[in-house]
Design goal:
This protein has 72 residues and is mainly α. It has 2 helices and no strands. Helix 1 packs antiparallel against helix 2.
């Protein structure tokens, strides 16, 4: 996995970790490591969602005010 995974990569890896935990596929020896990785992935997903939400809100605000929209 890349150092800075995309949202999709992070979400998919998080899903895999959750599935492993739910199915009891993770030994106690690596559980702490997986939980730390899951926490990091959640942080990455949350950051990317917040950033996207801010960008979309900015675009919508510009559309409402007519700023940044080319005139015909």
């Amino acid at each position: 996995m890349s150092k800075n995974p995309s949202y999709t990569e992070a979400f998919e890896e998080l899903g895999e970790i959750v599935s492993e935990i739910e199915n009891g596929e993770i030994s106690v020896d690596v559980l702490s490591e997986k939980v730390k990785r899951a926490a990091l992935l959640i942080k990455i997903c949350k950051s990317k969602l917040t950033s996207t939400e801010e960008e979309v809100s900015k675009i919508l605000k510009e559309l409402e005010t007519g700023e940044g929209v080319p005139e015909k």
